[in-house]
């Protein structure tokens, strides 16, 4: 019996019979239970023997909308990073009701609209990187549907939806800016002081930091484990503890599960409860505004920390391992290779007399 499960309550039915010495085949998608799919299979066999087309009341409900296709993609893909999940929810909310035959045209107009409008989250134009991520997710969903033979081909081709050029963010803070910003954080959002100080010294992703727990802490070796399931590239790693933060981790409250936490005191009982930091988007941007800084994302601290490690003499391969980069991102951020090249330039000492030669003598 050719009944293949393709998703939650979704089956592909392949039926064929020999009629008049010739083989007749039919393939359908079926939504429902397996028992119902088996009944439909038998019904199809009967229709093929009789040479009759299936009544409209028995025809299978095929994939009609992007939302139905996306449901299968989410189920097959499984768990993903929070940032990726947020993009998936956005696409499902805004594009889920579009029917598949017209999806490519509608999606093309949607991308053009994104380029012209500001982000609701930041109030600024969306970057090419942000738009590229959305296109990649939609393309991956259609690729999966095509691999499962739920659609004939992927309409989100690279020719029609080319990758936009991405300019790496090049944000640098002076020492004075960092001190001023940390002073504002200590005053306005002290629960963020530790995580920001850590992120400025150790290249981490936000999702890694907010999910670090006491079980990940290794005080003996001065390191924190990042489990593979919370890493963006599904590969675990270790983060070193900066010397100036050793006492912070040694004196963590016993009641907190998270290494970076928010303590809330109940007014009636005076009891203190400990929670994870979660997004802390509003507090971050409020502190930036009070410090007179603009255009700084929390993720920028990851790049600044990597640059700081390089400037202090840490080998590039070590920085890549700590940052958990698969490729050498230092080539993209802050133009590390050209700057390192300047450090290796050696001028000839024999040319120095030109600088001391009077102009009249030179003439």
Write out key terms for the chains shown:
hpI Integrase, Chain A, alpha+beta, three-stranded antiparallel β-sheet, 8 strands, 363 residues
Give a verbal description of the structure:
43% of the residues lie in helices and 13% in strands. The chain is an alpha+beta fold and 363 residues long. It folds into three domains: 2-58, no CATH class; 66-147; 175-343, hpI Integrase, Chain A (Orthogonal Bundle), CATH 1.10.443.10. It has a three-stranded antiparallel β-sheet with strand order 1-2-3. It has a three-stranded antiparallel β-sheet with strand order 4-5-6. The longest helix has 20 residues, at 128-147.
Kindly provide the name of the CATH class of the largest domain.
Mainly Alpha
Summed up, the helix count is 15
Compressed to H and E, one letter per element, the order equals: EEEHHHHHHHHEEEHEEHHHHHH
Helix content: 40-55%
What number is the mean pLDDT? 82
The proportion of residues in beta strands is: 5-15%
User: How would a crystallographer describe the biggest sheet?
Assistant: 3 strands, antiparallel
- The low-confidence parts are 53-61
Summed up, the domain count is 3
Adjacency order of strands in the biggest sheet: 1-2-3
Concise description?
By secondary structure, the protein is α+β, with helices and mostly antiparallel strands. The chain has helices at 34-50, 66-77, 82-95, 103-116, 128-147, 175-188, 193-199, 206-210, 246-250, 281-290, 300-311, 316-323, 336-344, 353-356, 359-362; strands at 2-7, 10-19, 22-31, 217-218, 223-226, 237-240, 261-265, 272-276.
